[in-house]
Specification:
Elements lengths: L6 H11 L2 H7 L6 H22 L7
């Protein structure tokens, strides 16, 4: 299975959500599903922001 997000990105986003300590201590299985959903939401926002920067600020249509 191909990796969609690097571990580095996942941990960066986990830090922003305040669950990085839980992940480091207990693993991803201990993170509530709501927080995992929020992590995906942040990842999508980050990808959209990156795409916008690469395309000159035109945004996603």
């Amino acid at each position: 299975m191909a990796k969609i997000m690097s571990e580095e990105l996942k941990m960066k986003l986990a830090g922003r959500l305040g669950v990085a300590d839980t992940v480091a201590r207990e693993g991803w299985g201990s993170v509530p599903s709501r927080e995992c959903g929020n992590l995906v939401k942040l990842a999508i926002e980050e990808a959209e922001r990156s795409l916008t920067q690469r395309t000159g600020g035109g945004g996603v249509q």
